[in-house]
Every structure is written in structure tokens, then in C-alpha cells.
Amino acid sequence: MNNVFRLLPEQASTLAPQVDAIYIFLVAISVFFTLLAAGLVLVFGVRFRRRAGGVTPERPHEDSRLELAAGGLLLVILLVLFGWGAKVYFAAARPPADAMEILVTGKQWMWKLQHPNGKREINTLHIPAGKPIQLTMTSEDVIHSFYIPAFRVKQDVLPGRYTRLWFQATKPGKYRLFCTEYCGTEHSMMGGWVYVLTPADYEKWLVGQTGVAMTETPVQAGERLFVQLGCQTCHNPNSGALGPNLVGVFGHTVRLADGTEVIADEDYLRESILNPQAKIVAGYAPVMPVFKGIVTEDQLMQLVAYIKSLAGASN
Amino acid sequence: MSHAALATADDTPKSYLSNRFSIQSWLFTVDHKRIAILYLISLTVFFLLGGAAAAIFRLDLMTPQADLLQSETYNKLFTMHGIVMIFFFLVPSIPAVLGNFLVPIMIGAKDVAFPKLNLLSWYVFMAGGLLALGAIVRGGVDTGWTFYTPYSSMYANSHVILAVAGAFIAGFSSIMTALNFIVTIHKMRAPGLTWFRLPLFIWAMYATSLVVILGTPVVAITLVMIFIERFFGFGLFDPALGGDPVLFQHLFWFYSHPAVYIMILPSMGVVSELVSCFSRRRLYGYTFVAFSSLAIAVIGFFVWGHHMFVSSQSVYAGLIFSFLTFFVAIPTAIKILNWIMTMYKGSVSFETPMLYAYGFLGLFTIGGLTGLFLSTLATDIHLHDTYFVVAHFHYVMVGGGVMGFLGGLHFWWPKITGRMYPEGWAKFAAIVIFVGFNLTFFPQFQLGYHGMPRRYHTYAEEFQILHVMSTAGASVLGAGYLIMAGYMIWSLFKGKRAPANPWDARGLEWETSSPPPTENFLTTPVVTQEAYAYDKPSVTWVPTAHPIPEGHRV
Ligand code: HEM
Ligand SMILES: [Cu+2]
């Protein structure tokens, strides 16, 4: 399926043809300039080779017009490349709003994934074709990098931080998944397969052989934790509680006690759970307990997913 | 080395090689030329070690499974290969060997400004090298030469501290050499040798020295930070302690990207000398080439973020770094044009050094062009940390850096040793090295675009055929290097004696005997013309035997 002697590897995402178009352009200019340089070197080498009794060459004139012209031509090509590359890069960096979110945790040496309905898998990722998918990723130890060559996407996965990656697969099939940031002894074993299914097959896969979704979804798990850990005693959706109301907080601006403002993104929520004293919301006392060491990365993701779902409810 | 073979005729002063022979006279020498030889010997040993590591893991990569090495061993081997090749071979190569030997001679000085510091720098270098070797002997390091945190600071259970200490200490040796060159070039030029009469090799060494002095302290601090983190658990990089895992990458690349220019600018300087000499013509666009070295050195400090497009750096930072990176390409590309245009209407000949210059032009052009794939944001997402990157940096660093070093070594070999190498063998080896190199690394571009990640011990079956090609190429390349080592050693004993100026080249180094006397020149030369005055007759003189011809020197 992946014939390494073809110019391009398999294209299986909406991004792939766009990246490949730039690649082909780059290959074309590279071939052109390499042949030009090699050609000139050979032609000059032969045409001006030293002959017995030849004349002494003249000193070259210090005339910069050739340099300027070459530099100018190059500048134009480089600006085109820069602009084109940036355009595709920006599109690749911005997940569409309706993307389906899958949670990913990297760990020496495996990928753990969780689907919106709660179904989990390790080192395999099943996704529906034709639907934008967003991965929200973090690592439990060192830096890893999530890479699906057929989709032309890659993103580092960091401990202590969330990173995102999105793609839309175009055709059902089986594609390789790799870790590309060196992460220790079994780095090269940290990967597996991405199975792109038709949407109908994906639905079937989700509920498995029993025909019913058995696991709780990340949002449900987050809600359960929210109660178990006692969060709701202070973050009571009804007013007058000790902590700020979390409904609708995700994605919005929060005023802090020191007068600054932050956007409540996943990283902010995560930090506020692990180390609440780091950023105190204006109008509240710094009384929230520290949850570092109490919740795992997976649980954190679920809590964040739950709080994000509250944002959806308010709109 | 055979003493008798190196002894010179009675009427000429003793050369730096033959004036004393004891071990102490070498280990405590303050002669820049002898120090260059000490470096040459140590670097050759390091290159062999690094090459042996590559040979072993390259062999292992012939098959997708781990059938020769264990993962642990594989990781340690590619780490050792990277650390040794970068910190203990390529960074010091041209400056410490050719630079040390030639900078004072090319500017008509007796020695560098601080000869004792120069000797100290070799000892410091060896101390760093021995620490790094210690790390290897005691069981190895498995972090990769980039030492990314938090893997290196918290998780790796190998001898990270020793290896880091080795690299750190070697950094001071580069700083000492750089300082010496800057002061020497400023203060000790012969009368009449103005800045714009300097050979371009000197300009390149000057620009490189600036980068070394500005950049090396940053990597030194960064390495100390890893040390602190591992030893005291400070939490600089560990997010569990409030550290930033990516901070290291910023600091590391702030040095290590400019370090690429530490490895390549000297080579560009050598190639300028070679192209000019073997085209018998002043370099086309001399001033441009001189200034562009400085420009590349400066811009090189602002592009480190192009190693981090997928590291979680903001998209806007990515945008700026990509933009600036494209700008470094322009002076570099115009330099290539200048070298090619020098041949136009020249009188071109193909001695071995020129073959290496040709090799440099071809490989460095490919290395540079593939750099564009990595500076373009969209394609870098796909290519980052794949074999495409491995191929790219080998084209630049080995195709550019090492080819330049070998070209320079052949060019100045007669000057350094007083012996000629066998031209036929040398040409043959140059061609074998060029072919072997391309066979090894060209398939890796294709591997990378098809998705083969770097630093993989085992891999998907479909990649095997390209890996087999690459390993076959590496054997050819290795054979080329060995042939070269063979005839070079042979030439030390049996090579034809070298005249003062075997290439009929211009430049002060060709106006003293081969090998030069300890003090380089018998009388201080006075320079009356620009560099590369190939349109004027040679003013070659052998000390004492021929006085300086009238009209050329005042
Ligand atoms: C003699 C022929 C050589 C061969 C066959 C070779 C092969 C390789 C291969 C296959 C890798 C990738 C390892 C991996 O990431 O899994 C590698 C990495 C590297 N090579 Fe070479 N190499 C050679 C010469 C050199 C030279 C002469 C230098 C520098 C002067 C050099 C510098 C590096 C560096 C810096 C790395 C990166 C190591 C890392 O990923 O940490 N190589 N080499
Ligand atoms: Cu990993």
C-alpha cells in the first residue's frame, strides 16, 4: 500500500493534498536549481578548463548586478513559499468548531485514547471518515509526538500541558501512527494504527458487539469525579457559593485578583485544578485545595471535559 | 613520524616539525602549528569512534526488526554518534586544525595572540572528550545529542551528567580558540594587510569566532541547568515541579542553530580558497562573500524556533521564525552563485582539493534546498523528526562541513606535512566518498517523506528497501574514508617532498617553506596587493634562498 518508490505516500486527509502540492513545488524548484548549479559547474569546468599555455584569466569585475538579480528572484520565490506554507499551516492549526474531540494521553511507550462516548483504546485509533476530529493531548511523562504520515499531521505531546491536533480523514483504510519525539528505550515501538471507518461502521464499532455503549463518557466521568472530589460543594451552580460558577466559563475571559485577564482554555482549567493559588479569580478567596497528586492525567482530562460541557449548556 | 624523513636540507631553517622531537616538545608546545597537529590527531580518533558507532547502527537498520542490537544499545549508539560527531569532531574541525595552523600564517604573524591559551584550549578539549568517552565506557548515554528535557533531566537513567559535562567543557575550548582568533586577526596582521586584502578563509574564521563567543555561553548555561535539575531536582524543566519542558529547547537551539554555522562557515571559507586557486582567479564578488559570512552569522541567531514548529510554540512565533529562516537562504544562495561565477572565464583545473570543492557545491546545494522544505511551515509539520531531517543535516554538515574540511586538508596537506599525497588515489577516494555519501543519504529524503521517524530502532517493513540502500551507501562511504586515511598516512613517510607552493597559489602561507619554520616567516612579510592576485606573477620565495623579489614587497 505504501510503495516507497512513488513520489508521494498515500494521501488520506483533507490536509494531505495541500501539503503535497507545496512539496511538489519544492521538489520542482530543488531539481531545477540543483541541475542548474551542477550544469553550470560542469559546463564552466569543461569550457574553461586549464590548457597548456592558456592565458591568465582576468580579475572579475566587482559588479553586483548579477547578485542583486539573483537575490531578487530568490526573494520572490521564498516569499511565495512562506505565504503558501503559512496559509496551509494556519488552516492546519485551527480546528473547526464542530470537530469531534478525542482525548489522548502519551506515556512511555504507548498511546491511550478515549472517544466521546467513553470508549477507550490503546495504540489504535478508530475514526469516522469525512468528519473533523480534534485530539486533545497530554503526556504522563516525557515529550512525545503524535504523527500520522498519511494525514501529514504531527504535534508534540507535552507533560503538564494540553496540545491539539485536528484532521479530517478522507477515505476508509488503515494508516500508520508513530511517536516522533525520541522518548526513551522503546521509542520506536510507540505507535500503531489508525483505522478510518465509514461513519456507519464507526457507530457500530463504538457500541461494540453488545450493541450498547457500556462505558461512561468522559463528560459523565468528569461529572462523577466533580461530585466525588467535592468540587460541587464550592462550585455550586447556584449563586452564593465559595467558588466561581463554572457554567459557561470555558472559552471566556476571566478577571483575576491581580487585575489581569486570562482566557479560560484547557490549560487554564488544568492549572486551576492542580494548583488553584496560581491564578485567583477576582472576588474569591484563595481557599481551594490543591489537587496535584490527587487526580491523574486521565481524570484531569475528564474534569476538563465536564467543565467544557457546562460551557456548551450556557450558550 | 620518521625523523629522518622530515629533516630538511642544511641551508634552510628547521621546520616546525623537525626542530625538536621529544614527546614533551609536543605536549608542551605553544606553537600554533603543533597544536593544530595535536587537534588533527585527536579529531581523527573521534571521527573514527563516531563513524564506528554509525557503522554498527546502520548495519542494524538493514532489517526492520531488532536483530543485531538491543533498543537500549541502539539508542546509546546514535547518541554517541551524534555527540562525538558534533561536539568533538565537526564543531572544532576546521577552526581547531586548519584555523589554528593557518590563521597566523595567512596574516603574516609568528603565532596567535595568546599561544599558551591556545595550548590550554587543546587540554580543555581533551578533558571534555575524555569525560564524554567516560560516559560511553561506563555504559553510555541514551538521550540523543539534543538532550531534550524532561527526558534527559528526569527520566534517562544513563550517564547524562558525564556526557553533558564533556560537551560543556569542550565548549570552553571553542571559546578560547575563538577569542584567540579574534584578537589575532585584529592585532597581528602583517603591514599592508588591510581588512579587504584578507583571504576569505580569514573572514570566515572571524565570523565563526563571533558566533562561538556569543552562542556557546548559552548552551553552557543550558547544560548546567540539566545538571542542576538532575542533581538537585530543581524543577526548571519538570512540569510536575512547575518547570517548563520546552524551555530547554529554546535555550538549546538558540545555541545549536548558530552552531550549524559554526560548522559550515569555516567550510565556506575553505571552498572560497579552493575555487579561487583552482580557477586561477580572484573570487567573484569578494566583498559580498566577506560580508555575507557576517550576515549569516548574525541572522543565524534569530531562527532557532524553526526547530520547534510542532513543539506547541504559538502559530505566530512559528510564522516569524519561518520568515526569518528564509532570509538566511539568500546570502547563502548568492555565495554559491559567486563560487560558480568564479569559474566562468577562469582557468579551471581538477586537482583533488577542487574535486572536494565540487563535491561541496553539489551536496551543500542539495542540503540548502532541502532546508527550504523544513522552513516552509506546512511541509515541516510532516517532515519534522523524520529521516528527511536526518538526510538534510547530513547533506549540510557532512556534505558541506566535512567535504570542506577534507578539501582544505588536501589543499594544505603539503604545507602542513611537507609531503605530497598520491594524486591518483586521492582523486579516486574523493569520488568514492561523493558517491557513497549520496547513496547513503539520498534515500533518506524519500524515507522521511514517506513517514519514517528518526531515532527508530525498529521500523515498518515497507521502509526496508531504502534502509538497505542507505546501509550499502554507508559501506561505500566508509571505504572512501579508509582509503583516504591509508594514503594520507602513507604519504607522511613516502610522499614526494612538497615545494613551498605546489599549487602556484596566492596567499602568505604559500610564501614560506613547506613545512614552515617555527616562527612561520624569517622576516615579517609586507603585503602590497589584494588577496587572490592570480593575474599577477607569483611572488613565491623560499626563505634565505631567494630574497623577496623587487616590486612585490616593500
Ligand atoms: C560515516 C557516515 C555516516 C553515517 C552512515 C551516518 C548515519 C546516521 C544515521 C542513520 C543517523 C540517524 C540515527 C537516528 O536518528 O536513528 C545519524 C544521525 C546523526 N549523524 Fe550521522 N552518519 C554518518 C556520518 C556523520 C558525520 C560525519 C556527522 C557529523 C560530522 C554526523 C552527524 C550526525 C548527527 C548529529 C546525528 C543526529 C544524532 C541524533 O539523532 O541524535 N553523521 N547518522
Ligand atoms: Cu513517545
In short, what is this structure?
The complex is a heterodimer of chains A (315) and B (554). With 315 residues, chain A is of the alpha+beta class.
Unreliable stretches of chain A, pLDDT < 50, 5 or more residues?
none
End-to-end distance of chain B, in Å? Answer: 39 Å
Give the strand tally of chain A.
12
| Secondary structure category of chain A | alpha+beta
Strand portion of chain A: 15-25%
Structural class of chain B, by secondary structure, is mainly alpha
Helix and strand element order of chain A: HHEEEEEEEEEEHHHEEHH
Shape of chain A: elongated
Mean pLDDT of chain A: 87
Rounded Rg of chain A: 27 Å
Give the overall shape of chain B.
Answer: globular
Helix content estimate of chain B: 55-70%
Count interface residues per chain for the largest interface: A-B, 87 and 96 residues
Q: Report the total helices of chain B.
A: 17
Q: Main sheet of chain B?
A: none
Oligomer: heterodimer
Q: What Rg of chain B is obtained from the alpha carbons, in whole angstroms?
A: 23 Å
Helix content of chain A: 25-40%
Number of E strands of chain B: 0
Tell me about the largest β-sheet of chain A: 5 strands, mixed
Could you describe the 3D structure shown?
The complex is a heterodimer of chains A (315) and B (554). Chain A is of the alpha+beta class. Chain A is 36% helix and 20% strand. Chain A has 7 helices and 12 strands. In chain A, the strands form 3 sheets. In chain A, strands 3-2-1-5-8 form a 5-stranded mixed beta sheet, with helices on one face. In chain A, β11 (253-255) and β12 form a beta hairpin. Chain A is elongated. The mean pLDDT of chain A is 87. Chain B is mainly α and 554 residues long. Chain B has 17 helices and no strands. Chain B has helices at 3-6, 23-27, 32-60, 71-90, 93-106, 115-137, 151-155, 160-187, 200-232, 247-279, 286-299, 315-343, 352-375, 377-383, 387-417, 423-449, 464-494. Chains A and B meet through α1, α2, β7 and β9 of A and α4, α7, α11, α12 and α13 of B. Protoporphyrin IX containing FE binds at residues 51, 54, 58, 78-79, 81-82, 85-86, 89-90, 144-146, 390, 394, 397-398, 402, 440, 454-456, 474, 477-478 of chain B.
